[in-house]
């Protein structure tokens, strides 16, 4: 079949939904295509924690946090380390626009749509370097009341209303395999109609083709996400200078996040900028109830756990839990390891360990205040407690020697020396006992408790790990968890895709992760967290409105 529409949007995740609703609000005719079944409407965003990078928000000000667009941009540039050779021209321009949006229109726009936030702003990616280096100077991670589904809710509602009124056509199980070009211009898409599949949200679905389709349109928007589930491509693209990604990795995204949309655009003449820039996590644990292949969950840690490499050595400063995700990952990959460890105790487990994702936070996702109040207890919140009990990644013991034996039994290797592990813990405990100390992690943890939110729900009071009152001890095996592509299709400030020569590829736009969250790489080399969902919102809004003016 061949059809004609004003715009074809490929991908029904958050960025695709925002773009589509902006176009529909202006009366444009849109065809929305997605390879997955209807149950997966919203894509990766549904599974997210719903964290948004907001600057100088009412939530921050109520907590006494002094933030500004100038400070946020300085943090962004210190983290991004944009190149000076012109290759980051568009990424940097998108970054400046995003920070202005995060400090200005983002929150009011979402608030008008009914989105609300948990009032206790979290402090992600603390950095730990000098003032002009990587990291957030202040807490900026605003968790959405309703998590990822809460972010999606207004856009899904607008899409369904438009669909009911006949103003948009949505076709699931339509997998775009190529972009159609005519005289150097993208003029449509073609691909396979996939067999019907009733797979649950996020679960692998059939790729059996039962037909073909072709659609013509003056504008095509690629909103297909990154490459995180395609581990072969992730390994092949990972820069050799950053070490070697292991054969055993976990996936933080469903199977369909395979990079096929980016590749289809590349074959049509698009420039893929900075493909080797990625944002994967070193703190992954296997999901005991997996939905997709190699399904992993990220631990969101407070700063008190000891982070050890596969041989039991502490990671160097400032690679403490929650400070520099990419730095810690590259430390692991440079060693050629497939795992590292958190060592902690019962008190730290209960106070500091959280799990990322909507399904792992039923209190926030379900907007359940009574359940939310359990976070102030000494014991771990429900999903963390379940993981500690059901997951083989958690080892419990009463002594360091017993803990070392359990760690070695889990990996099947004798890499953890019991005496060395004991000495490491004793040395750390001696620093805590002083009440001051020279250990940078101990002093950073003490500083974290000056922030009211960390003191209340995120950072345990200083104590000795070997104090029986805080036992037992735990070790958690951490695996590499693939997640985000920081590079992507190069775009100008209207979302128009560029060719390798820097000129516009007519007829093609890109949004969200497929566009590196703006310009082919708005984050540069490192992200500040809360910027992925927000990047989808920003690029979808900007590109949708630019398309309205173009068509």
TrEMBL record:
Task: List the Gene Ontology MF annotations in alphabetical order.
Answer: steroid dehydrogenase activity, acting on the CH-CH group of donors
Could you confirm whether the keyword S-adenosyl-L-methionine appears in this record? no
| Pfam families in the cross-refs | FAD_binding_2
- Keyword Flavoprotein tagged: yes
| Keyword field | Flavoprotein, Oxidoreductase
**Database matches in Gene3D superfamilies:** FAD/NAD(P)-binding domain, Succinate dehydrogenase/fumarate reductase flavoprotein, catalytic domain
Q: Per its UniProt record, what InterPro entries does this chain match?
A: FAD-dep_OxRdtase_2_FAD-bd, FAD/NAD-bd_sf, KsdD_DH, Succ_DH/fumarate_Rdtase_cat_sf
SUPFAM superfamilies registered for this protein in UniProt = FAD/NAD(P)-binding domain
Give all residue intervals belonging to the FAD-dependent oxidoreductase 2 FAD-binding domain. Answer: 6-533
Put simply, this protein is called Fumarate reductase/succinate dehydrogenase flavoprotein domain protein
What is the organism of origin for this protein?
Cellulomonas flavigena (strain ATCC 482 / DSM 20109 / BCRC 11376 / JCM 18109 / NBRC 3775 / NCIMB 8073 / NRS 134)
What does UniProt list as this organism's lineage? Bacteria, Bacillati, Actinomycetota, Actinomycetes, Micrococcales
């Amino acid at each position: 079949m061949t059809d004609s529409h004003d715009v074809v949007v490929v991908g029904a995740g958050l960025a695709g939904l925002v773009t589509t609703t902006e176009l529909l609000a202006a009366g444009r005719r849109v065809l929305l295509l997605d390879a997955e079944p209807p149950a997966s409407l919203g894509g990766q965003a549904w599974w997210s924690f719903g964290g948004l990078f907001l600057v100088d928000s009412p939530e921050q000000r109520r907590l006494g946090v002094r933030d500004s667009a100038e400070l946020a941009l300085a943090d962004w540039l210190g983290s991004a380390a944009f190149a000076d050779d012109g290759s980051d021209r568009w990424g940097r321009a998108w970054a400046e626009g995003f920070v202005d949006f995060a400090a200005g229109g983002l929150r009011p726009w979402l608030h008008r749509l009914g989105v609300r936030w948990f009032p206790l702003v979290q402090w992600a990616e603390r950095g730990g370097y000098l003032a002009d280096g990587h990291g957030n100077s202040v807490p900026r991670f605003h968790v959405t009341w309703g998590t990822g589904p809460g972010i999606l809710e207004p856009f899904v509602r607008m899409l369904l209303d438009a669909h009911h009124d006949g103003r948009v056509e949505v076709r699931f199980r339509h997998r775009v395999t190529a972009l159609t070009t005519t005289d150097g211009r993208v003029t449509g898409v073609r691909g396979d109609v996939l067999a019907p599949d009733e797979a649950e949200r996020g679960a692998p679905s059939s790729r059996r083709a039962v037909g073909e389709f072709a659609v013509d349109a003056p504008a095509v928007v690629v909103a297909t996400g990154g490459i995180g589930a395609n581990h072969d491509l992730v390994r092949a693209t990972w820069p050799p200078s950053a070490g070697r990604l292991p054969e055993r990795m976990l996936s933080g995204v469903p199977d369909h996040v395979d990079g096929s949309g980016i590749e289809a655009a590349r074959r049509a003449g698009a420039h893929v900028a900075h493909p080797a820039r990625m944002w994967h996590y070193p703190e992954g644990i296997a999901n005991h109830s997996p939905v997709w292949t190699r399904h992993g969950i990220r631990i969101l840690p407070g700063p008190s756990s000891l982070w050890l490499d596969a041989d039991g050595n502490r990671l160097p400063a400032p690679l403490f839990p929650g400070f520099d995700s990419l730095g810690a990952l590259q430390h692991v990959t440079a060693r050629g390891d497939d795992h590292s460890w958190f060592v902690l105790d019962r008190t730290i487990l209960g106070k500091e360990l959280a799990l990322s994702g909507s399904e792992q936070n039923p209190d926030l996702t379900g907007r359940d205040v009574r359940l939310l109040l359990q976070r102030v207890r000494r014991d771990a919140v429900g999903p963390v407690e379940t993981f500690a009990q059901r997951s083989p990644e958690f080892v419990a013991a009463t002594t360091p020697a017993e803990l070392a034996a359990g760690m070695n039994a889990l990996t099947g290797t004798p890499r953890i020396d019991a005496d060395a592990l004991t000495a490491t813990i004793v040395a750390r405990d001696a620093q805590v006992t002083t009440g001051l100390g020279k250990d940078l992690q101990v002093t950073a943890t003490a500083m974290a408790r000056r922030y009211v939110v960390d003191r209340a729900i995120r950072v345990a009071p200083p104590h000795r790990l070997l104090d029986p009152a805080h036992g037992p001890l735990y070790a958690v095996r951490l695996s590499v968890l693939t997640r985000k592509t920081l590079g992507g299709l190069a775009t100008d400030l209207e979302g128009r895709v560029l060719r390798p020569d820097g000129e516009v590829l007519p007829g093609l736009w890109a949004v969200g992760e497929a566009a590196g969250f703006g310009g082919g790489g708005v984050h540069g080399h490192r992200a500040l967290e809360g910027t992925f969902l927000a990047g989808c919102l920003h690029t979808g809004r900007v590109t949708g409105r630019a398309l309205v003016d173009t068509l």
